[in-house]
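User: Predict the complex with magnesium ion.
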Amino acid sequence: MAKTFIFKFGGASTKDADSVKNLSKILHNRLRNHTVIVVSAMGKTTNALEVILNKKLIHEDYSSNITILKNYHLNICNGLFAQSHPIFSGIENLFLKLTRTLDRQINKDNYDEAYDGIISFGELIASRIIQEYLCDQGLFCLWQDARELIVTNEDFRFAKLDWEKTKQKIQKYLLPKLMQFPVLTQGFIGQSNTGKTTTLGREGSDFSAAIFATCLKSNSVTIWKDVAGVLNADPKRFNNTVKFDELDYREAAELTYYGASVIHPKTIKPLANHSIPLFVKSFLDPEASGTKIHHVPVINKIPCLVVKDEQILVSFKVTDFTFINESHIHKVFAELEKLKLRVNLLQNSAISISIVIDKEVFKLEKLIEKLQDDFEIRYNEGLQLLTIKNPHSALVEDCIKNRNVLLEQVTRATFQTVMTPLS
Ligand code: ASP
Ligand code: MG
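Assistant: Here is the predicted structure with magnesium ion placed in the model:
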């Protein structure tokens, strides 16, 4: 297969006009014909769309939120284009479509499907603006609707990829275009067989980049971030962080599993299976080396810290004087699976099962509804899950100091705790 390259730019790298100019500068020196540029929504657009959707759900007026979001994008365009540029009517059009989509009935039962239809506008708008700007700068590239290529099932908000169909489409439709021009497309979004828009999970555009790379057997993927590369901890939370020059696929996958937000958890596996290197580089310092994730034989011994916020600790206590057995665990996990809720931590005692899950609209409520006849259920919200890989006691002590620790789990290589956040 021909040499191809994937570049992915997230929301932070396109948050304002200057950022888009910087993106174009990065591409100026590096853009080759056989490059797919994957972009996600600009800045915090996805969060803003979630707020709009939730207001709609509770019948609150969201018109001012739409105006703010539209003006945000128009402002970016003002910094990038002449007033007569057709992009301005393009944006008006997309916002009109968004408003129409929001006019439909949205309730608890169709929430996930409506979510994907609405949230995907962030990516559609961003990709239009960026493609137009790159073309204006002489970096000619084609705009591609990712939904024509990325085929998923209808697990809305967490859609599963149909690898076979997606690969066929990418090779049939994308590859010929790519042989002539760079192609710019959206991360995060896809489409079901019946033509419904789907999304791959929050922050899923890294995964999209990996999908394109795998289906094209690309030479590399580069994710452009606002950090120097993959660090051993989030520099916004911890001091003295260390950047990895290189990291084994397995190690990187493990960190994302615990919640390291630098790369989406699903990104690593397909790349590892095809030995496609993943570069994580800073868009603020594009010449710096960043981190290369590939097959590395040496095991990392540096402590790594990962924090997950907004965690819920739920305990299921048996009420009939029996002890916890497999059938109790099975019952709880069967419901979790139906709700597509991932367990971040599990612990059981003689009479109770405790799980830690992410906060998601309606999910806890539905879980309790299903299991309240079998268990006495208690929960605590707004907690933090901290995972330390390669821990040492002084570090652990420092991290849990002044915290209310609700649960702790220790294995040979990892320490995990659920605790109240620092106030
Ligand atoms: N825009 C989406 C999100 O913020 C996808 C992504 O950024 O990867 O979750
Ligand atoms: Mg994002």
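Residues 304-419 form a domain with the VC0802-like fold (CATH 3.30.2130.10).
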